[in-house]
Every structure is written in C-alpha cells, then in structure tokens.
C-alpha cells in the first residue's frame, strides 16, 4: 500500500511539473511559487513484523489485531516440551560433571588423581555448560516478547497452528510516535527545509493538524524531479492512525519566485492553510 501511495505521489508531482513547464514556455517570466495541495500519509516511525524464531506449534496467542501491549510482554508462546526436556537433561549432565570435578579435586590433593584426569574433568564441565547454554537459548526462543510498547496492526497466524521458522506472525507498531510522509517538487528545496511548518488536513478525521518538517530524503528522484519529506506532528494527534492520509498545505515564503531562495525556518505565518490557485 505504501509503495502504491509513493508512486501516486510521484506521478502527481511529475504532472504538476509538466504543467509548470508549459506555463513557463507560454510566458516570458517564471511563474511565482504558490501554495499547493500535496498528499501526505500518516506513518508509524517504529514498526516491524515479528516472525517465528523456530518451527513449531503455537500454544498461546492471546493477542488480537488492534490490541495494545507493553514492552517485554509475551505475545506468542510455542509448545516446547521437547526443548524444555532437552534443557533439563543438559542441566542434569552439567551438575553431574561438576560433582565429579569436586571429587577429583579432593582426590588430587591426596595424590590419587593425575593432572591429565583433572584436565579431562574440567573439559567435561565446560562441555556440559556449553550444551546447557545451547538448550537454554532454544527454550528462550519458545516465547516471543514485544520489543517495544505499542499496538498490533495485523495477525497472520492462529493459535494451535504449526508454522515454520521465519514465518511472519504479527505486525506491530508504536502508534504514539507518528509522522507524516509527503512527496514535493525537488525545486521546493530552495525554500523548504528542516523546521518548515505547515498544516495537514486528514481525510479520515476531518481535522487539521500542525506539522513541521523533521528530515528530508537522502536522494531526489531524477525522473519526476521530486523528493520525499518527513514531518513530525507538533500538536495533539491521539485520534490519528497509521495509514490515514490527507492534504498537506505548504505555503512558500513571501516574495519567493524561483529556486534562489534559502530554506526558511517555521514561522506562525507559514502555519495558515492556503487554498488552491486557479
């Protein structure tokens, strides 16, 4: 969906640039830059897909699409009776080798055990400890915990389902850290930069929100002569969800007629929406 949105924006910017070029050819002077409607999309800055760390059957999946969770909360638990049994066996072997090592150390003091036998005893303990560590790691993979606090955006598996290693299970995101993405004509970079303020009208809520450019993409699309910008929402935005979209009303500074103007910082006057020009 994001890819289609990006392609749509790039096409819109390209068509806009063609129209400007035709207008410039028709008249002798360059046309002044005016406020223009730019489509913007709400996205989550922190989002990821949790995949299965192992092949197995899901024993517990109590979370559903739209549910909230805390950092470190168990989201998925696998049936790991075999892995737990292997770990218990490895721990028992480690304990046995440690007790044998203690006995050999006492016998060594009495001269009843050679140095070679002591070295073998130490190696047995180290080997058993490594095996216990491996099985402990396998057991730890039986539970999938939340890497951050947030919300479930999609569930791809079901409880009791057997899935393979690496299979996607959950789409999660932090809906408290939202930002806007938009594509603008690259020549706007002459006056638009980090800190430029604007307004965005979100279609789904019917409300207007204050925003400020937080960063720019690292490259310009040479075909459409456009560039992606990212903006942070500076005001209240508790009713926004990732995927919502709307109109970004970006106004150029006064007396800007071409590409020689310098980037400007956000000003109160920049925050006022401007309607379309004929």
From TrEMBL:
InterPro entries: MFP_Cation_Efflux, RND_pump_MFP. Keywords: Signal, Transport. Residues 244-278 are annotated as: Disordered. Transmembrane segments: none annotated. It comes from the Bacteria. SUPFAM superfamilies: HlyD-like secretion proteins. Residues 1-23 form the signal peptide. PANTHER family: CATION EFFLUX SYSTEM PROTEIN CUSB (PTHR30097), SLR6042 PROTEIN (PTHR30097:SF4). NCBIfam families: RND_mfp. Belongs to the membrane fusion protein (MFP) (TC 8.A.1) family. This is RND family efflux transporter MFP subunit. It comes from Azospirillum rugosum.
């Amino acid at each position: 969906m994001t890819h289609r949105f990006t392609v749509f924006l790039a096409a819109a910017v390209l068509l806009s640039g063609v129209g400007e070029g035709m207008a410039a050819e028709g008249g002798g002077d360059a046309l002044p830059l005016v406020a223009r409607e730019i489509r913007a999309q709400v996205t989550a800055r922190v989002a990821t897909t949790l995949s299965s760390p192992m092949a197995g059957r899901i024993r517990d999946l109590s979370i559903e699409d739209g549910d909230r969770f805390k950092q470190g909360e168990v989201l998925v638990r696998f049936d790991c009776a075999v892995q737990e049994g292997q770990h218990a066996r490895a721990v028992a072997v480690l304990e046995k080798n440690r007790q044998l090592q203690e006995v050999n150390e006492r016998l060594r003091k009495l001269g009843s055990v050679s140095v070679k036998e002591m070295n073998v005893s130490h190696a047995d303990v180290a080997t058993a400890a490594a095996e216990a560590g491996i099985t402990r790691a396998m057991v730890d993979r039986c539970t999938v915990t939340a890497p951050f606090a947030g919300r479930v955006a999609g569930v791809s598996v079901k409880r009791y389902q057997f899935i393979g290693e690496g299979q996607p299970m959950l789409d999660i995101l932090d809906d408290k850290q939202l930002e806007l993405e938009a594509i603008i004509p690259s020549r706007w970079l002459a006056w638009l930069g980090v800190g430029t303020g604007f307004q965005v009208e979100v279609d789904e809520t019917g409300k207007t929100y204050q925003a400020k450019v937080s960063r720019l993409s690292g490259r310009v699309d040479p075909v459409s002569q456009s560039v992606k910008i990212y903006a942070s929402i500076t005001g209240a935005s508790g009713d926004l969800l990732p995927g919502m979209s709307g109109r970004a009303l970006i106004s150029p500074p006064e007396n800007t007629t071409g590409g020689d103007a310098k980037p400007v910082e956000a000003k109160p006057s920049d925050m006022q929406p401007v309607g379309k020009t004929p």
